[in-house]
Known about the structure:
The protein is an alpha+beta fold. 19% of the residues lie in helices and 40% in strands.
Amino acid sequence: MSNTYEMMFILRPDLTHDQVNKQLHKYNNLLKQNGAGKVSMEIWGKRRLAYQIKKFQDGIYILTYYTGDGTQVAIIERDMRLSDDVIRYLTMKLDNKFQFEEKDIPELQQSTPVISPVESSEEEVSTPEVEESIVNEDSTTEVHEETQPVPVEV
Length: 154
């Protein structure tokens, strides 16, 4: 029986384009050699980590979907655990109703930036001005309150 799996792994942020391409081909070939059916990989690019992992603040995110019988999970996770280039990985078994298209391995070119913009500045979140009417029980006067934009850290 063939199951569908989603695997997200994070590569070290200091890898070159060639090293990232090498890792993509390595894991794609490993999956194919061990009986995986369809394999699809997407590069999400360099993103800020929620917390520091192995002294890295950023990582190159790769999203992978594949179909297989389940034996591939242990093999690929073992290889990622032993690799110095992978700083984190997670594999999830998806519902059989989930469908995806098999894609070729995306090739990073020197002109393709690995870094995606990470916004770290404070932004003001604008909220529509809302007037709330509060009727005082003792009198017929209404009190109007306006909400102000609140600064939010991203």
